[in-house]
Amino acid sequence: MGQFTGKIAILGSGNIGISLAKGLVKANYVPAGAITLTRRTLSHLTGFANLGYQISADNAAAVAASDVIVLAVLPQQLNQLMEQISGAIDLKRHVVISVASGVSCAAIREKLGAQLEVIRAMPNTAIAIGQSMTCVAADHASAENIAEVTKMFETVGAVVKINEDLMTAATALCACGIAFFLRGIRAASQGGVEIGFHADEALKMAVQTAKGAADLLLQMQSHPEQEIDKVTSPKGCTIAGLNEMEHNGFSSSLIKGIKLSAIKAGALYTKE
Length: 272
Known about the structure:
Blueprint: E1 8-11, H1 15-26, E2 35-38, H2 46-50, E3 54-56, H3 59-64, E4 68-71, H4 75-85, E5 95-98, H5 105-112, E6 117-122, E7 132-138, H6 143-154, E8 157-161, H7 167-175, H8 177-194, H9 199-220, H10 224-231, H11 237-247, H12 250-265
Parallel strand pairs: 1-2, 1-4, 2-3, 4-5, 5-6, 7-8
Antiparallel strand pairs: 6-7
Helix pairs in contact: 7-12, 8-9
């Protein structure tokens, strides 16, 4: 597939929508002029107009002028947005991508048209630096459109296609998960202060060590335990520290936190 030749509307251009737009342009997927960014307060987008993006406060008009529609508002704003654009949706032409957590493809098709192709995407905040872990799912979209959406989100990180019933689980592991790993890094840096480093030094050391651990797994395509075995010598200091953490519930607390996050994520949209 070469450069995408259609037009893209990103409705509700907050952090995720804007990060996606920047990624698509940076990767040469589309020129800025092929993307329309919408927001209720247009003044927030004037900087993007100067960069060549189309900007609009009229969601229906943006939809009518585009081929791919990205619904990038919060779940509680989604129903209102869908009411605004339902009249402008062309079932044969449009592909809809929703990043609203907890809202099924079926719920969107119910409002916008039963035959519409809807693909859900769940990125995380690392999308801002092109390092998102994005999960995509659909209920009856074509393989071509799923491949195209995958390609779009690969401009801002890694993508995994999953079954739609796992989307709330993906929210917990990937979207909430950013916070869990950040808290782990924060705790390690606090440990560093207690053993003698200044706070800024300890944080830098913890951050780079965490990044090194993640990159080791990505680049070596190895398993965490394989890499742990290389650091744990008999009667050594690493295994002593690891076992102390495990006695205090290190792994089990992370597992339990992820399970609870998944339960909460499943109830976000239904509560509105």
